[in-house]
Amino acid sequence: MSNKTKEKFIATLMGCAIGDALGMPIEGWKREDIKKQFGRITEITAPLPDSYTGQLEKGQYTDDTILTLALAESIVAKKGLDLEDIAQKQLEAYQSAPPRLKKTFGKSTREGLLNLKKGIPPTQSGMSARPGNAPAMKMAPLGLYMYAIRGWKNGSECVKAYNFAEEIGRITHWDKRSRVSGGVQANAIESLLHGVSRQEFIDTIIYECTSYEIPPYSAGPIHREKSLYSRIIWLKENKDVSANDAHAYLKSSGFVIESYPFALFMFQKYWNNPIEGLIETVNWGGDADTTGAIYGALCGAKHGMIFPEKWIKETKNLEPLIKAAEGIYDLGKNKRLIK
Ligand SMILES: [Mg+2]
């Protein structure tokens, strides 16, 4: 793997943090209110004291990046995929977070992690039927790992990696659409590292849904009308519509069938203008830190370190993400791991 690839690995996890911190002050906001209060968020900005994230500081990232880091650090420590360790590292990340950051963890995630604490195994701890965003927002490190091991690791480990996103999602989420979204994000990251075209990128994310969410493959509840698949098919058929029209249809709430396809739509629409696209995405509000984190990770995987210098400087605590990204990259370099 080349130095450019290493840069992209780092930029993927850094992009997650930067997008998270960029959207953090306006998490849960409506677009009109963002306009009224801020005009447009174009820089890393401090939250207003009485807002949902008002307890955080300028440049702080939230649960999205904290859980992404926990997954990345587990992959590095275990030199591979260990569900029990991933679950424990996520629980530790939650438990060691200061109260003001604990508040940023979604309800389903908190419930799943507390079930783990009670001793429920990670294959059963996610009990929430709420289609939350968490599996998609934290899955970028799995995409890095899939890229790192492809082509030299033994076949069963590659197959395991492809199926593992759903197991990681299952730690906190039972809803099939949430669990599928993790696989979509991991594959999206891997495909971007391989240098796919815009059309290939769209085909990749659709393929992931058809593999896991559509009968006869699906083992969970099917939501024909509001499946992730149906929303991403809409994206394919409407890939050039305005952001306004896309948001009117897809929306950007904390539900994975809204904000995730919206973030994917924006990423492919701004294929060659990614920073403007990231700014525009968070300014639609809703789950803005999460759309920012998801978009930022995709952006780093495709483009490498293109984030403005000022954003990098103002986003706090990037060092552990850089170290973890380098660690996953090194797993791909270290061919002695082949059994
Ligand atoms: Mg968050």
Chart the SSEs and their pairings.
Blueprint: H1 3-23, H2 31-38, H3 63-78, H4 83-96, H5 99-102, H6 107-117, H7 134-137, H8 140-149, H9 155-170, H10 176-193, H11 198-212, H12 228-237, H13 243-250, H14 259-269, H15 274-282, H16 288-303, H17 309-314, H18 319-333
Helix pairs in contact: 1-3, 1-16, 1-18, 3-4, 3-8, 3-18, 4-6, 8-9, 8-10, 8-18, 9-10, 10-11, 10-16, 11-12, 12-14, 13-14, 14-15, 14-16, 15-16
Describe the structure.
The chain is built from 18 helices and no strands. The chain has a single domain, classed as ADP-ribosylglycohydrolase fold (Orthogonal Bundle), CATH 1.10.4080.10. The two termini are 20 Å apart. The protein has helices at 3-23, 31-38, 63-78, 83-96, 99-102, 107-117, 134-137, 140-149, 155-170, 176-193, 198-212, 228-237, 243-250, 259-269, 274-282, 288-303, 309-314, 319-333. With 339 residues, it is an all-alpha fold. The structure holds magnesium ion. Magnesium ion (MG) binds next to helix 3 and helix 16.
